[in-house]
Design a protein that fits this description.
mainly alpha; 4 helices; two-stranded antiparallel sheet
Amino acid sequence: MEAIQAGKQAARSIQRFLGGDRLEEKARIPIPREQIEPLQVPDEERAKLVRPSMSEENPEKRIQNFRMVELGLNADQCRNESKRCLRCDLGE
């Protein structure tokens, strides 16, 4: 989140500099965004939520081509990862 904010601030500073404006920026009032409530996950399911490991192409195959090395997640892994993501209070 901080990296995104810093990037936006840098972009505004560059725009002001190139436009010949003063570099000092007035304090910005944050615009409220919609709050998404954490997903309610039962305790027994919560205990199973861990970050899935990414499957990778076999090293013998990947030295022969330029295809993606990381093969992605399957549908079940994606669903579980989205549950974990929507419960960011769970940590790793």
